[in-house]
Amino acid sequence: MANNKPLIVIIDDDFTKDQPLYGFLETAYPTENLHIFQNSADGEKFVEQHLSQKTIVLLDIMFNGHEVGVDVFNEISKKSALVCFIVMTGNIEQVSRKGLENLINGHAWYIVQRDKPAKEILGIIKDAENHIDLRVDGALEQWVLRHSEEEQKKPFITTRSGNSYTLLDILQSLRTGDNEEIGQEIAGDILALAVDLLMQDKTKIGE
Amino acid sequence: MLNVISVSDDLDAHIGPNCLLAHNHFLGEVDLLDHNVILLQGNDCTAERVQNSITSFGGAKFILAAFSHGRPDALLSTAEANGYVHVGNSYYFSSSVVYTNCCHSGVILKEHLINAGCIGYVGYTDIVRLPKNEEEDILFIACENSGLIHFLNTGASLTESVEFMKSKYLEQRQAFLTKKMNVTAALLFRNMNCLTYYDDGVTREILEN
Amino acid sequence: MGGKLKWKFDASTFKLLGRGLITDRITAIYELVKNCYDANATKVEVQFVDVETISLRSTITIRDNGQGMALKDITNKWLVVGTSSKRDVTFSAEPFHRRYIGEKGVGRFATDKLGGHLQIFTKKKDDPQVLKVTIDWADYDRQAAQIQEDEEKKLLFTDLENDYEYIDNDQLFEEGHGTQLVITILHEAWGREMLLRLENQLGRILPPVFDLKPPFNIFLEAQSLDLPKREVVPEPIENLATIHVSASFDYDTKQQGVVHFDDEKQQFVPYYIDEQSFGPVSMDFYFFDPEAQKQFKAKYKNTANYIEGVKIYRDGVICTPFAEYEQVLDKRRDVLGIDKRRFTEAFDKLSTREFISIIHITRDGNPAILDATNRQDFDDTLEYRKLKEFIIDQIDELAKYRFVKRQENRTRVQNNLRRASADVKDVSKSLNQLVRERPELKAVLAPVIAKAKDASDYVTEGVKESDTSEKEFLRKEELYLSLMSLQDFANELAHGIRFALAPAKQGAEYIVEFFPNTSLNDKFHEYARLIYNQTEVISTLVDFMLSYAQVDIEDSEFSVKDVINGVLKGAHAIIFEKEGISVNIDIKENIQLTGKRKFLEDVLSNLISNSRKALAKEHEKQILCESYVDNDKLTIIFSDNGRGVDPLVRDKMFEMFKTTTAEEGGSGLGLFIARSRMKALNGTIELVNSAFAPKGASFKLTLPLKK
């Protein structure tokens, strides 16, 4: 990844490069970060293969009259809770209640009607980008990925209650909540440290 | 003369070496040559052994230093999976100081020990984490033992010693931060935040009488 | 530190089980009678004594001549909650071999629903004495109400004790075996109406016209309410129905029989389809026309017997509608939600007031149809939903009979009216002739002649009125139909417009945002074109909407040959020449149709437009239009030898914006509009194998010949 911008993955059976929204996206993100998939299975696969990169997914809900998008959302979210989803629909009333439940409880970032002004949609994407950048668990994920594969497999910490964790365990935990949520706990620890440092702050104010 | 029981579960698969290290560090920093020290290691880390040791003190005050696993209601060892110090035998620990670096025991066991009349307790309310790295884990251990070492070497109150221990933690944390070992610093800080203690006005002097 | 923990049951558990699961007392008695069936009884006597006001004498007795129980049956089965020992074995003993219908082991708690005190008298065949067990539900209540100080000593259900003893009584059971339940301390009084309802419900445990061997006869008695002992019989529907259609499963060919109305023969004929996912079913449908409905009501006046739609029997015993005393009759009878369908009347669909259908399923053959835990419905499984749809299809088919009958009726009535009119005119004529021949009768006959004239006028008026209301009825029906399709239509169009607008909006937004900027000129140009295209699309949609808004489009008679020639040879001739497309027309018969001519023209224009685009890169361009009559339909096949239809879009090509002619400036609406037009003509359009295979495409249009 040459730049630090997230991947923008569009999974929508009606979307093409000709759409003005794509034009807007090009003004904010490098073209190599933009990926369009009209086939939902292909889009899903691509995201799952690039979990190590910060990703924002623009997801269409309806594919040929079926709520396939919700399945895609569920599947990817299972593999990593760190992928950010912006859900697009032609008509929000078309989405079933069950589908909405899934999206909300799976923490989809936003749901937007596709005929909204493109600038508004772009704004939502930029918000999502900020959000990803500032998430501690996302940052922790990146921290793990900065280590070599070998290092990732070595035991990193142990506890006085019987468990031992590698960096990979921590990574897995961040994405799926496994391993007693050790990843989330360490992310919490880092935040606690940051807060404490803030409390101890001796920055001089005024003259 | 001090009565001391030191329990160190060096048999444990994960933290055995760490317990041994902690135990040795402690003994290395405090001069207990002419005192009554009972070392329980390996298969001796049982409730029965602990209780017999206490009985052998004939009612005198003592310190129990524990280097092992823990649970909210007990201190555990490989030899005694249900706990060598637990809710059921808390009454053995009246007139004693219980000093642990185990996980969780501050949640339930501490209360029971206090109710049983123990005069001092130091422990943790959550999981205690250590880096699996020979350079850093000794630094963590040093922080964990610093309280007891200060208490025994300076004759200060347990409260003062715990304060001292916290400052050691923060000092070490800063050292990590300076070396940009931020994640380690966060882990150490977390352990410190789980510290809990109880002081009934005990000092080393009181223990010796 | 740890140990083991055990479950305890609070003493009030029994209330949960009894009063919770069985919601009314008719169901309670129903469940108990089902238990008698399972116990291989051939006779059950249900007796009510002094029940109209509650007193110590009020008693309900249920006695059967089934196999009875021994003490170990009581201790190991009756008093063991939640078992159905019947689950281990699914059939009762020979020669009965009855499939167990009681289940979930809670029937025993049904007695609590009825009264506070239960005595069980039971005897097996070879036992010398009768076993008597006393269960005092009321006492349970009392004991449970006592609040204990110490949590540990709280009264548990399993602590409750019940008395038992052996008594001598040879007279109790005629055949030397059986079970008698005596319930006293009744919770509620029973009136005559309740008893009649109970009789009605009990009569429905077994389906009519179903011979059980060995038999299962139920007797009901309530002397104090003027109901002498009588056998409960299922209602004989067969006799009263206007028509009876049955369809069953053919186990040899593994085919499911369905109701099929032959339009030609105007009657129901045997018809089979593949076995369905819910398993084999056999069905009997009884339709009641208004006259039959009246007779039915008269016969079953003052009972709870009604014509009530669908009833499902499993293994010969009823499982719907659930023996529930529903306050609202409509809810009770319509367990499949038949009457809930929209526009029921307008589509000639039957309501549950007009038919009874008996559906037979079996536990083995239809395992996916399960009782829901609350026993008020079936579990909502895929198979059950399919079964519901299937039954509704049969009922719709049945409705065709009613439609035909109605037609016949109307015709008959109109004919009668006309004949009456003619008759009255005849009478007038005869009277006038009489007066001419015998003028002295003029004075006497004058009032009669006057009356005859009046009668004649009234009848004529009646005939006219009948014709008018007939037309009115048809018009309203059409209006309903068009209203419904208009709703769907409006929905689709609105969605389509919004969809078409979105990129146009965003394209305009882009230009507004970034213009001027020479480096983006290509984009500006592209989006400007996009906006233009989208507005064209929206225009087309608006035109399409307008064409339907013109209510005045009258049906007219037209010649299909004229229309096809008009479009292909007239309007498009110049274009075909310019583009080098050779056109062949082959019309077998010159058929006259009644409908909206313009719509057919539109469809052909649309197809031509598509073909032109498909032929763009072709060298030897051809278009072929054939027409012939096939059964009762007019068929038109429109073909070209262009690049054919992309297999990827084949399934959705008639939907909006799904076709790939966008590059040539297509709006993606052509086939959508074509299909809408064909629907409005009561016809169809579909893609068929290309006449120019392996190239090109063929579209088949069909139109009904008879209206």
Supply database-style keywords.
heterotrimer, B: 209 residues, alpha/beta, Rossmann fold, six-stranded mixed sheet, three-stranded antiparallel sheet, 10 strands, 41% helix, C: 707 residues, alpha+beta, Heat Shock Protein 90, Ribosomal Protein S5, domain 2, eight-stranded mixed sheet, five-stranded mixed sheet, 16 helices, 25 strands, 40% helix, 20% strand
3D structure, described in words:
The complex is a heterotrimer of chains A (207), B (209) and C (707). In chain A, the strands form 2 sheets. Chain A has a 5-stranded parallel beta sheet. In chain A, strands 6-7 form a two-stranded antiparallel sheet. Chain A folds into 2 domains: 128 residues, Response regulator (Rossmann fold); 63 residues, no CATH class. Chain A contains 9 helices and 7 strands; from the N terminus they run βαβαβαβαβαααββαα. Chain A has 207 residues and is an alpha/beta fold. Chain B has 209 residues and is of the alpha/beta class. In chain B, helix 5 packs antiparallel against helix 6. Chain C is an alpha+beta fold and 707 residues long. Chain C has 3 domains: 219 residues, 2-Layer Sandwich (Heat Shock Protein 90); 171 residues, Ribosomal Protein S5, domain 2; 152 residues, Heat Shock Protein 90. In chain C, strands 5-4-3-6-2-1-7-8 form an 8-stranded mixed beta sheet. Chain C has a 5-stranded mixed beta sheet with strand order 9-15-18-16-17, with helices on one face. In chain C, strand 24 and strand 25 form a beta hairpin. Chain C starts with 12 loop residues before the first helix and ends with a strand. About 2% of the residues of chain C have low confidence. The interface between A and B is medium-sized, with 18 and 26 residues.
